[in-house]
Specification:
The complex is a heterotrimer of chains A (about 300), B (about 525) and C (about 325).
Chain A lengths: L1 H7 L2 H18 L1 H8 L11 E2 L5 E2 L22 H36 L2 H16 L2 H11 L6 H13 L1 H15 L2 H8 L4 H38 L10 H11 L4 H29 L9
Antiparallel strand pairs in A: 1-2
Chain B lengths: L1 E12 L2 E12 L3 E5 L6 H8 L7 E8 L2 E2 L5 H7 L4 E4 L3 H4 L6 H13 L3 H14 L5 H4 L9 H13 L5 E5 L7 H18 L2 E6 L2 H7 L2 E6 L2 E7 H6 L4 H9 L13 E14 L2 E15 L3 E5 L6 H8 L7 E6 L2 E2 L8 E4 L13 H11 L6 H10 L16 H13 L5 E5 L7 H18 L3 E5 L2 H7 L2 E6 L2 E7 H6 L4 H9 L5 H13 L8
Parallel strand pairs in B: 3-8, 3-9, 6-7, 7-8, 13-18, 13-19, 16-17, 17-18
Antiparallel strand pairs in B: 1-2, 1-4, 4-5, 9-10, 11-12, 11-14, 14-15, 19-20
Helix pairs in contact in B: 4-5, 5-7, 7-8, 8-19, 9-20, 13-15, 14-15, 15-16
Chain C lengths: L1 H27 L5 H6 L5 H11 L5 H14 L1 E3 L6 E3 L6 E2 L4 E2 H35 L4 H16 L2 H15 L15 H35 L2 H8 L4 H26 L1 H12 L4 H11 L2 H29 L7
Antiparallel strand pairs in C: 1-2, 3-4
Helix pairs in contact in C: 1-13, 5-6, 5-8, 5-10, 5-11, 5-13, 6-8, 7-8, 7-11, 8-10, 10-13, 11-12, 12-13
Classes of the chains: A mainly alpha (about 300), B alpha/beta (about 525), C mainly alpha (about 325).
């Protein structure tokens, strides 16, 4: 199909996909990678720190060596490589989980609103409006602050981000459904005796795939940024569970002494996000050539 | 003295040749019509006359009032556009800026070319709006385009064209997007403008009738070439070229009446449909309609836009529920009809087929819904019957032409063996030759299968050919109904008379007679 | 028009009440004891008893909410301990940890957040629209590519990362700018601007990307519309067409986005203020979370909600001014 052809010719998309898949792979096999490096993300190695200078790692590049491929963390001496690959797990896992929930819930509500009668539409739209009116980051911070610390944090993060962010998907799904519903071929299907469920499945859903996919592709990096931000502020995953955002939070205090500690998680975060953004952009251009070039 | 001389015009877009050696002359103060179907190159010609092509190679010579238009630079073109040659476009809604009032837009153009003061420009705007018979021109000048009706917008566009007193007006399909009565008024207006100001007119259309009534000379174009040209009466009365003859023959023609004494199949009694509106009066789309559709007949329903014909079509098929009144099919309430017993053929062949399914699958759907396990062979039979090859089953809608897609729509409507088929403007989006073919197909099918059809159209000529009885719809009401020949020969209701007087005909003499008739009916132009 | 305004404001008030209800329900029915959360980190048994009494946690939830609403409208007294604490209207709660009404805390810090948000917005709008117009005209391919690249990158950087990099570069390496600390506008405008420069740039980078792409898309779409062809057909010069017509068409989505951005002040404020150490509302929130000061948290959240609703209402009104086709319902 032309879509695949367009994707294959889009260098940004290809580069982005490769990096994105690589990161996903890293996240999935994190324990294996850490084992391969012979390290663990919780072991403290005080001996590798220079206590005279306040806990900065010994050696250049933040203590890079054959044992510690990316050096160690200042202040704790934990192996940076292990922490980073486990951090990938958290950062990507939360983002992927949140995105899937948002898409699932948003599409269901949006389609129901678009196909339902006037009352259903009005009621559901009010709900969506309320969700969109809620200040999500602020509310997320507040919610995460009051929840007891023994609840599983990454799941909680994914749930909170999802619950606060499904409004956008619902809104565009509703818009597209409303527009598709007026097409003549939907009327033709009704005349032939198809019920609304069948119409939703066979006539509307294929028309939704493109816009929803394009929107969802951009949700992933957005959710990643949300998790990173929350962890940065200290309300996300709690230590010792690593997350790139959390590492950046501690890295701010160390950045003069040990720039590697900023560069590694920061760089990885940026690269992963950029990769996903390129993928989303490529999908956008391939699926809807009218709105050419840049994301909307 | 000729205003415009075109010699050997060639327009190319990369490898595609849009116009291939076109030559014609337009004498001063007269009207020339260019007729052609889509792809004939007529629009490309129009745009070339204003230098609006950005990526085309243009060869040949265009002389306008002793000025050579070929090879002008941007600055020179800007001095000519609007000031000496003005263009009237097809879609008045999108052709005007939605962000500025009509008065502002006209005044801006006038100021640009004449250097007049704001005051003077505003006055000129009101003046030309009055010239095109827009009521309360000073007040209307402060309105936005979306606040005007379609006909008024087109008048406003013509007013803008007149603002700088150009020598030539190029009108590219100026009436195609308008209702037939409004179309007649706009054409009358163009005629009047030409007579009072002495401007030359170049009128481009796909409709022979439009050109016949307004132009002294006509050029028939096909695939970038002029196949025939000359005085209108001569070309249309005694065409020498085969294509011209084909065009003339493809125009709908009246057919001998068919005998029908079937029992009523679909009955509408006192049907009303209101649409509620927020904080406004509800819209009465259908207001007390009572009629019968007899088994085996083709009932035509004629109405212009906004008269409720689409709503009526949807009510008849059971897609909409009426606010009041009863609709029965075979004595049973339409809401409880068996699936597939009423089918519809839609206007826009592109949006009536799911673009992501093959056409075979789209036709197979109704069969599947009625329980047929493997409908492929039946679908292929249907494809053959509507004049398509069996292997088209696996093609997608975008791979077919408009006419072919419409045939697919007909096949889909036939698939479940319906009792009644409602056709909502099925040929309005088609070229005149394709239109003739699809109408012929429908005529064949109804003979063979004894179909009962309701045929809705704004085109009286088409209905004259295909409908046995005709109902005239205005403001949601049926104002006249009867045998086709009867209604056309002796219309009773004033609206019917107005409609019939507005139909474009390809005979210049007849067209003039109709224009005089329209004037005598004293239809105030201000209605639209 | 008046009717429309009344309806919209009424609707906004309804949404705010819905939001406050939601928040109240979430926080005060949450797993943790709201009294403990209100008491704060430096909680003593005496204070805890005061808090319990003041909040009336023994009353049914509906009564508690009613007190809260009454406080919003008419002020509220917290009968607790030796002194009755008075919380003037609109009372968003009382912070026992810092011994101040929440509203006072918010008002003290609002100028900082406002300076930050508005300054960044102005910067982003100017740069974004400018880049978007130039890029949309496709006159310079290199500019097009740069804008494209920046837009994509803009989506991919969290604001705190940009802030971090800017700090590293300008304050540590090059030492061109001091570490940002807040100087009020009224005290010293120049210092005010100099200190806020890095935070403004950090915030603006991402927003510029969004504005640039929207403007670009809007201009390209509008330029393809029929009325542009009419304008050319009547000899209008290209520059006038771009600035008077094409940009008008691109404005509507820009208005939406500006409204959303201003509404999201809180979000950007939280991260940026924490990053740069500016004493704004966002930092207040983070501090309150760490100090377990629930009333402040609720107060900030409600303020954020109010901003969102207000921004949306203003945006709706602006739509009508920008595009005459939009009907006020």
């Amino acid at each position: 199909m032309t879509v695949l052809r367009r994707l294959r010719g889009d260098r940004g998309f290809l580069a982005g996909s490769v990096v994105a898949l690589l990161m996903v792979l890293v996240a999935v096999v994190a324990p294996l990678l850490a084992a391969a490096a012979g390290q663990d993300y919780t072991n403290y190695h005080d001996n590798l720190l220079d206590s005279a200078r306040g806990g900065v790692p010994l050696g250049r590049f933040g203590g890079m060596s054959a044992d510690h491929w990316l050096g160690v963390e200042p202040g704790t001496g934990r192996d940076l490589f292990a922490r980073v690959v486990y951090g990938a797990r958290v950062s990507l896992g939360v983002a992927v989980g949140a995105t899937m929930l948002q898409v699932l819930f948003g599409v269901l509500v949006g389609t129901a609103a678009g196909l339902g009668g006037r009352w259903a539409d009005a009621a559901l739209t009010r709900v969506v409006d309320l969700v969109l009116a809620v200040p999500s980051l602020v509310l997320a911070i507040s919610l995460l602050a009051i929840v007891p610390p023994d609840w599983p944090r990454p799941l909680l993060l994914a749930a909170v981000i999802a619950v606060l962010g499904w409004g956008g998907t619902a809104r565009i799904t509703r818009g597209e459904t409303l527009s598709l519903r007026t097409r003549d071929y939907v009327a033709a299907a009704r005349l032939s005796g198809a019920g609304w469920f069948r119409i939703a499945r066979r006539e509307i859903a294929p028309g939704l795939a493109a816009p929803v996919l394009t929107y969802a592709a951009l949700l992933l990096p957005t959710n990643m940024i949300a998790e990173a931000g929350l962890s940065f502020l200290g309300v996300g995953v709690r230590p010792p569970t690593p997350s790139w955002g959390q590492m950046l939070s501690t890295a701010t205090t160390w950045f003069r002494a040990d720039p590697m500690y900023v560069a590694v998680p920061g760089g990885l975060l940026f690269l992963t996000l950029l990769a996903f953004v390129l993928v989303a952009n490529g999908l956008r251009r391939a699926l809807d050539p009218r709105q050419s070039e840049v994301l909307r | 003295m000729t205003t415009l001389t075109v010699e050997n015009l060639r327009i190319r877009f990369g490898d595609t040749v849009a116009v291939d050696g076109l030559s014609f002359e337009l004498p001063a103060g007269s009207a020339l019509g260019i007729v052609g179907e889509s792809g004939s190159g007529k629009s490309a010609t129009a745009l070339a006359l204003l230098g609006l092509h950005t990526s085309a190679t243009i060869e040949g010579r265009i002389s306008f009032d002793d000025l050579d238009l070929t090879g002008l630079n941007d600055k020179q073109w800007r001095q000519i556009r609007g000031a000496r040659i003005a263009m009237v476009f097809q879609e008045p809604l999108t052709a005007l800026s939605p962000f500025h009032t009509i008065g502002d837009q006209i005044a801006e153009v006038y100021r640009l070319h004449s250097g007049a003061s704001r005051q003077a420009a505003r006055q000129r705007a009101v003046e030309v709006l009055r010239q095109v018979h827009i009521p309360d021109p000073a007040g209307r000048a402060a309105s936005y385009p979306h606040q005007f009706s379609g006909g008024m917008r087109q008048r406003a566009l013509i007013a803008m064209a007149l603002a700088c007193r150009p020598r030539l007006i190029v009108a590219d399909e100026p009436t195609t997007a308008l209702d037939v009565t409004v179309q007649a008024q706009i054409l009358d207006l163009l005629d009047e403008v030409r007579e009072t100001t002495g401007t030359s007119l170049l009128l481009i259309s796909h409709d022979l009738g439009v050109v016949a009534g307004s132009c002294d000379r006509v050029v028939v174009m096909r695939r970038g070439l002029a196949v025939e040209q000359g005085e209108t009466a001569a070309v249309l009365g005694a065409p020498t070229d085969a294509y011209t003859r084909e065009l003339l023959q493809a125009a709908p023609h009246p057919t001998p009446p068919r005998k029908n004494d079937g029992k009523p199949l679909l009955r509408l009694a006192g049907v009303r449909k209101h649409f509620k509106q927020r904080r406004r009066e509800p819209v009465k789309a259908v207001d007390d309609v009572t009629l019968d559709v007899r088994a085996g007949e083709t009932l035509g329903i004629v109405g212009e836009s906004g008269t409720g014909k689409t709503t009526l079509a949807r009510l008849m098929t059971g897609l909409l529920t009426q606010s009041a009144g009863t609709i029965t099919l075979d004595g049973v309430d339409i809401a409880r009809r068996p699936g597939g017993s009423v089918q519809m053929v839609f206007q826009d062949p592109l949006s009536s087929l799911n673009p992501r399914r093959t056409i075979g699958e789209s036709i197979a759907d109704p069969l599947r819904l009625s329980g047929v396990r493997d409908p492929r062979s039946r679908v292929e039979d249907l494809l053959e019957r509507v004049g398509l090859a069996r292997r088209e089953y696996d093609r997608y809608p975008h791979q077919l032409s408009g006419g072919m897609r419409q045939r697919v729509g007909i096949a889909r409507a036939l698939a479940p063996g319906p009792r009644l088929i409602v056709c909502d403007e099925p040929v309005s989006s088609l070229d005149v030759t394709t239109q003739a073919q699809v109408l012929a197909l429908l005529e064949d099918l109804r003979e063979e299968l004894g179909l009962t059809m309701v045929f809705i159209s704004h085109d009286l000529a088409v209905l004259r050919q295909i409908a046995d009885r005709v109902a005239v719809l205005a403001d949601g009401r049926i104002v006249e109904i009867g045998d086709t020949a009867q209604v056309y020969a002796a219309p009773q209701h004033p609206y019917t008379k107005e409609l019939l007087a507005a139909v474009p005909v390809a005979d210049p003499a007849e067209a003039r007679r109709l224009r005089a008739l329209r004037r005598s009916l004293d239809l105030s132009d201000t209605k639209s | 028009m008046i009717g429309y305004l009344v309806r919209r404001v009424g609707g906004a008030v309804l949404v705010l009440f819905g939001l406050s209800l939601l928040l109240y329900g979430l926080f005060y029915l949450a797993p943790s004891d709201p009294a403990i959360l209100t008491c704060g980190k430096g909680c003593t048994p005496e204070r805890l008893a005061e808090v319990r009494h003041a909040l009336g946690v023994d009353d049914p939830v509906a009564t508690q909410y009613a007190h809260f609403v009454r406080g919003l409208v008419a002020g509220r007294d917290y009968p607790a301990g030796p002194a009755t604490r008075h919380c003037p209207a609109p009372c968003l709660g009382y912070s026992f940890e810092t011994d101040q009404p929440v509203t006072r805390l918010l008002l003290d810090r609002l100028p900082v957040s406002a300076s930050l948000a508005l300054g960044a917005e102005v910067l982003a709008l100017t740069a974004g629209i400018g880049a978007g117009v130039l890029s949309g005209l496709r006159r310079y391919r290199w500019l097009d590519r740069i804008v494209n690249g920046l837009v994509l990158a803009g989506y991919a950087v969290p604001v705190f990362l940009v802030g971090l990099l800017l700090l590293l570069l300008f304050c540590v390496q090059l030492q061109w700018l001091p570490f940002p600390s807040y100087v009020p506008l009224t005290t010293d405008p120049l210092a005010w601007a100099r200190n806020l420069l890095l935070p403004w740039v950090a915030l603006a980078v991402i927003q510029t990307a969004a504005y640039a792409r929207l403007t670009r898309a809007g201009i390209q779409e509008t330029l393809a519309e029929d009325h542009i062809r009419t304008a050319r057909a009547y000899g209008l010069p290209e520059r006038r067409i771009i600035w008077r017509r094409a940009l008008r068409g691109a404005l509507l989505p820009l208005v939406t986005l500006t409204a959303i951005d201003l509404a999201a002040i809180m979000t950007s404020a939280v991260l940026t203020e924490t990053m740069f150490g500016l004493p704004g509302v966002g930092q207040l929130l983070v501090g309150a979370v760490n100090q377990i000061d629930l009333p402040v948290v609720v107060g900030v959240t409600l303020l954020a909600g109010l901003l969102i609703v207000a921004a949306n209402t203003v945006a709706d009104l602006l739509y009508r001014a920008v595009d005459p086709r939009v009907e006020l319902r």
